[in-house]
Amino acid sequence: MVSWIEWMGAERRAGDKTVAAYRRDMHDFIAFVAGHRGGPPDLDALAGLRQTDFRAWLARRARDKLARTSTARALSSVRSFFRFLDRRGLAVNAAITLVRTPKLPKSVPKALSIGDTRDLLAEVDADAAIEWIARRDTAILTLLYGAGLRIAEALSLDKRTVEGLLRSRATAIAITGKGGKQRIVPLLPAVTTALAAYRATCPFMAAAAPHDRFFIGARGASLDPGVVQRAVRRLRLQLGLPESTTPHALRHSFATHLLGAGGDLRTIQELLGHASLSTTQRYTDVDAARLAAIYRTAHPRARSRG
């Protein structure tokens, strides 16, 4: 299993969190097989697993009330492991290909309304007692909404990259996303203004090395994403926003608002860095739900009970 984990990181270029999740999934599976078959499985035992063995593992996860999304990912991890064994001639098991993925509930990204997004970004500047921290949080949230970044992508930006784009007054930035894939994301003037305001007030910026992270915590170290999540949680409570208001909801809002303004799916896919268009197509469900809600509240016949 160690070779497979190393392959996932080196060859597949999976992120650290993805690799850690795959490792947990396989430890869970191997532990189940050991208990189910009466001992730690070797390669011959793995090759001899039947469809009923895999189903028993899935049934145990269901009894433990593990989320279907978690089980679907775990099954994907196990399939990847068996494909790895097969391609290297270590073990072949056709039964795993017959196991169906648990049916998942259809999820719709939870975006903020344009008004709620505007209120959130306006309030963040007044939330922190220390000016530079307020400027930092404003810059991060403006970047998430204005460029559609994942929080990990925003926090991975280094000083040299951001200072270079501010110095050259660049209107776009290269972002390295999941799987090491790069994409070019346009930057609105509001985003670069917020980044420059934070840079000018951050007391640690002058001493930071070019390769150091651009976003810095209160004690001078790289900013932890939990700090941003807690800041958004405070703002959510202050403004009475939905519980779905998280840093990632700003990325959803970026995509949903672009789509609502006439943006095409292919362009939004490129901006978000989605590998598959089907992932981006979830935002059409959000927009359809919004239109249906407007119809129900505005159309005379929709309001009429007679």
TrEMBL record:
Keyword DNA-binding: yes
Domain of life: Bacteria
Localisation per UniProt entry: Cytoplasm
Active-site residues per Swiss-Prot or TrEMBL entry: 150, 178, 248, 251, 274, 283
Signal peptide from the UniProt entry: none
GO cellular component: cytoplasm
GO biological process: one example: DNA transposition
Entry keyword annotation includes Cell cycle: yes
Pfam families found in the cross-reference section: Phage_int_SAM_1, Phage_integrase
GO molecular function list: DNA binding; tyrosine-based site-specific recombinase activity
Keyword terms: Cell cycle, Cell division, Chromosome partition, Cytoplasm, DNA integration, DNA recombination, DNA-binding
Core-binding (CB) domain: residues covered: 1-86
Residue span, Tyr recombinase domain: 107-296
Family in the record: Belongs to the 'phage' integrase family. XerC subfamily.
Subunit and interaction comment: Forms a cyclic heterotetrameric complex composed of two molecules of XerC and two molecules of XerD.
Job description of the protein: Site-specific tyrosine recombinase, which acts by catalyzing the cutting and rejoining of the recombining DNA molecules. The XerC-XerD complex is essential to convert dimers of the bacterial chromosome into monomers to permit their segregation at cell division. It also contributes to the segregational stability of plasmids.
Stated name of the protein: Tyrosine recombinase XerC
Organism field: Vineibacter terrae
Gene expressing this chain: xerC
